[in-house]
Amino acid sequence: MTKDNIYADQDIPGDFQFNDVVAEVFPDMIQRSVPIYQAILDNIQLLGHRYIQEQSNVYDLGCSLGAMTFALRQSLPLKPERLGAVPQKVNFYAVDNSAPMIQRAQLKLAGYQSNYPTTFVLDNIENVQITNASMVIMNFVLQFFKPQDRYAQLERIYAGLNPGGVLVLSEKFTNPNAYAEEQIKQLHWDFKAKNGYSQLEIERKRNAIENVMILDSLPEHLARLEQIGFEVVIWQLGFNFCSILAFKPQK
Ligand SMILES: Nc1ncnc2c1ncn2[C@@H]1O[C@H](C[S@+](CC[C@H]([NH3+])C(=O)[O-])CC(=O)[O-])[C@@H](O)[C@H]1O
Ligand SMILES: O=C(O)C(=O)Cc1ccccc1
C-alpha cells in the first residue's frame, strides 16, 4: 500500500481532487483519515447477506477503488444458510466520475473470479439510472454533492430501491452545537495525528477539502431521509463520521 505523503512535502494549491496521485495512495489515506472506514469494510458483507435480493442490482455510488463492491461481491456466495439461499443473479454497478479511480477498481476486480457481472461506470452519479436495486452504497460521497442537489439524488435512490432494500449512507457530519463541533473536529485531528499525519499535513488537507466537502449535521441527514420515506438507523459512528442504514420498508 502506497503511503499518503501528498501534503507532507508540498502545499498543493487549489481544491482537493480525486486525481491519479490521490487514487494511488487512497487506501492508506482513507484508513488513516476516516475513523469508521475499516469497521464498515469489515461488516458490509453482513448487510449484503441480509439485504441483497435475488435478481436485483447493487450500486456502489462513488466507489473509488471499489473496495465495498469487491467485499460484497466476493462474500455473497458465503451467505450463511440461516439467512436463506445465496442469490444467483445479482448485477453489481460501481460508479465513479474519477477516471484514475475507476480504472484501478476495474483492474483489481478483473483479477478475481466471480459469477456476478460487475459493470464499472465512469460517470457522474446523477447520470446513472437506478432500478431494481436491493442495495445502494454511498460511502462518503453525498458530502461532495452541491447541497441543493442532495435531496433529489436521495429521492431518486429511494425510487430505484425495491421494497426491503437498503441505502448505506456514510458521511462526515457537523454538530449543531458550536462548542461540541469544535471539540469533535479537534479530536478527529488528534486521530489523524495518532495515525502519523503531521500538523502541517492536517492543516493543508483541511484547507484543500474546505470548499469541496460541504457537510450536513446528523439531524439534517436523518430528517431528510425520513422525509423521503426511509426508515433510518445509525449502524456505525466514530468522531464526526457516521454510517446510516436507510431502509425502504416492505409494503
Ligand atoms: N458526482 C459524483 N459522481 C461520481 N463519483 C463521485 C461524485 N462525486 C464524488 N465522487 C467520487 O466519490 C469518491 C469519494 S471517496 C469514496 C470512498 C468509497 N465509497 C469507499 O467506500 O471506498 C470518499 C472520500 O474520499 O472522502 C471519489 O472517488 C470521487 O471521485
Ligand atoms: O481527511 C479528512 O480530514 C477527511 O475528512 C476525510 C477525507 C478522506 C479522503 C478524502 C477527503 C476527505
UniProtKB/TrEMBL annotation:
Keyword check for Cytoplasm: no
Gene3D superfamilies: Vaccinia Virus protein VP39 (3.40.50.150)
A GO molecular-function descriptor: S-adenosyl-L-methionine binding
Enzyme Commission number(s) from the entry: 2.1.3.-
Record's keyword annotation contains Lipoprotein: no
Reaction equations catalysed: prephenate + S-adenosyl-L-methionine = carboxy-S-adenosyl-L-methionine + 3-phenylpyruvate + H2O
EC class of the enzyme, as a word: transferase
GO biological process: tRNA wobble uridine modification
Keywords from the UniProt entry: S-adenosyl-L-methionine, Transferase
InterPro entries the UniProt entry points to: CmoA, Methyltransf_12, SAM-dependent_MTases_sf
One Pfam family matching this protein: Methyltransf_12
Binding site for S-adenosyl-L-methionine: Y37, G62, C63, S64, D96, N97, N139, R206
Organism domain of life: Bacteria
Every Methyltransferase type domain range: 60-167
Function summary: Catalyzes the conversion of S-adenosyl-L-methionine (SAM) to carboxy-S-adenosyl-L-methionine (Cx-SAM).
NCBIfam families, alphabetized: carboxy-S-adenosyl-L-methionine synthase CmoA (TIGR00740)
Family: Belongs to the class I-like SAM-binding methyltransferase superfamily. Cx-SAM synthase family.
Subunit text: Homodimer.
Name of the protein described by the UniProt record: Carboxy-S-adenosyl-L-methionine synthase
The organism of origin for this protein: Psittacicella hinzii
Organism lineage: Bacteria, Pseudomonadati, Pseudomonadota, Gammaproteobacteria, Pasteurellales
Gene: cmoA
